[in-house]
Design goal:
Strand content: 25-35%
GO molecular function: FMN binding; metal ion binding; phosphopantothenate--cysteine ligase activity; phosphopantothenoylcysteine decarboxylase activity
Domain DNA/pantothenate metabolism flavoprotein C-terminal: 186-297, 318-430
Distance between the termini: 21 Å
CATH topology of the largest domain: Rossmann fold
Number of strands: 26
Strand order of the largest sheet: 13-12-9-14-21-22-24-25
Largest sheet: 8 strands, mixed
Family: In the C-terminal section; belongs to the PPC synthetase family. In the N-terminal section; belongs to the HFCD (homo-oligomeric flavin containing Cys decarboxylase) superfamily.
Shape: elongated
Radius of gyration: 26 Å
Number of domains: 3
CATH superfamily of the largest domain: CoaB-like
Region (Phosphopantothenate--cysteine ligase): 191-433
CATH class of the largest domain: Alpha Beta
Cofactor: FMN; Mg(2+)
Number of helices: 13
Length: 433
């Protein structure tokens, strides 16, 4: 996403500018071309050599240098930039940008460029909340600038409040989002992605669940965001940070997952069901913790409503029985209900909801995946063997097959889950267009 992207990074004179060193380093490592422009006051906090070392490029600051080349340089930077990001953005520079002042290299480039503008304000809390600063930020938003809200925490003054520069990972997410919404191939699309596993309660402290980490679903949602889509991410309990800029809906059970999906897909272009949704749930969860002396639990799975052989919640000989009933099949229900069939795409044509499913298998991967593709009337099915050490739950890589309705099967090599996510959206994009 950032490979060969030309990013002009403005550095203003606040104590938080030391954090921008790490941002420049991470952008450069991701393959971006980073030109740094420093204000004169930023030079008092971090020397230009530091940023030059991290970016592997010259640092610009003096609009009035004696050779006269700065006049040509600020136009070149303005025209070459694919994004102008100002990190940190001080109250002073925000005011200049809002009112069109051009008294230094950074503000001159800002006024001359057609690239999207991203601001990450960082300052003392009362400076940030001051009506003048808020009015200036509001004016810049109206003109299309994207504002990364400052974090709440301990400030350089020692006080606690709003004004901290967010961490590098969040800033990188904001940069990717802004670039995607400006030139991504999914701009104007709304997509729904499910991730993680569900937890079906046995009692208030125990549940029936699975090993899903959510990594694949989060990678899919992040890739869609980076391509400019409006993303709804419906997630079961995971230990992953929320991707910046997506609409996050947290759920626990399969029933909650179904409700969230049904409420989200009516105006969506695409649904990617990568979550590991539990097929069964305890029919009658205990309202209180089941005590150990009741016995060790055993599981009785049932797709029907037949009567339990034992009384749930009580000992049955040397064991304990939990009666399981089948959860709703979300993708199958969608196929029956035909939700999204009357949505108009960007070209004005009626287009159905594109539905992508996943099949995590332990045996007979090809046969089981083909059956699922047909049964659920999917546009694309992604299947993998979760018994492999380099694929499936918890791994950072995945070995998948793509199954298409025309019986075409693509056998992809082992790759990072971010690469699988990109491949999925490449296939979905062809279905959309």
């Amino acid at each position: 996403m950032l490979q060969n992207k030309h990013i002009v990074l403005g550095i203003c004179g606040g104590i938080a500018c030391y954090k921008a060193v790490d941002l420049v380093s991470k952008l450069q490592q991701a393959g971006a071309v980073v030109d740094v422009i420093m204000t004169e006051s930023a030079d008092e906090f971090v020397r230009p050599l530091t940023f030059s070392t991290m970016s592997h490029r010259p640092v610009y600051s003096d609009l009035w240098e004696p050779s006269g080349q700065a006049a040509e340089t600020h136009i070149r930077l303005a025209e070459e930039a694919e994004l102008l990001a100002i990190v940190p953005a001080t109250a002073n520079t925000i005011a200049k940008l809002a009112h069109g002042f051009t008294d230094n290299m950074l503000t001159t480039v800002a006024l001359a460029t057609q690239a999207p503008l991203l601001l990450a304000p960082a300052m003392y809390k009362d400076m940030y909340t001051h009506p003048a600063t808020q009015a200036n930020l509001s004016l810049l938003r109206q003109r299309g600038a994207y504002i990364v809200e400052p974090a709440v925490g301990r400030l350089a003054s020692g006080t606690i409040g709003t004004g901290r520069l967010p961490d590098t990972e969040l800033l990188l997410g904001a940069i990717r989002l802004t670039l995607g919404r400006h030139s991504g191939d999914l701009v104007g699309r709304r997509v729904v992605v499910t991730a993680g596993g569900t937890q079906e309660p046995i009692d208030p402290v125990r549940y029936v669940g699975n090993h899903s980490s959510g990594k694949m679903g989060y990678a899919i949602a992040t890739e869609a965001r980076d391509r400019g889509a409006d993303v709804v991410l419906i997630t079961g309990p995971v230990s992953l940070p929320a991707p910046y800029g997506v609409d996050l809906i947290r759920i626990e059970t399969a029933s909650q997952m179904r409700d969230a999906v049904m409420a989200s897909v009516n105006d969506a272009d695409v649904l990617v069901m990568s979550a590991a949704v539990a097929d069964f749930r305890p029919a009658h969860p205990s309202p209180q913790k089941i005590k150990k002396h009741v016995g060790e639990p055993s599981i009785i799975a049932s797709s029907g409503q037949q009567k339990q052989a034992t009384t749930e919640g009580h000992a049955a000989g040397d064991g304990f029985s939990i009666h399981l009933v089948r959860n709703a099949d979300i993708l199958a229900d969608l196929a029956t209900m035909q939700i999204g069939q009357q949505r108009r795409n960007r070209e004005g044509r009626l287009q159905p909801l594109i539905r992508v499913g996943f099949a995590a298998e332990t045996e007979n991967v090809i046969a089981n995946a083909r059956d699922k593709l047909v049964r659920k009337q999917l546009d694309l099915l992604v299947a993998n063997d979760v018994m492999r050490s380099d694929s499936g739950f918890g791994a950072d890589t995945n070995k998948v097959y793509f199954f298409h309705p025309d019986e075409t099967v693509e056998d992809l090599p082992v790759m990072p889950k971010t690469g699988v996510a990109a491949a999925i959206w490449d296939r979905v994009l062809s279905l959309l267009t």
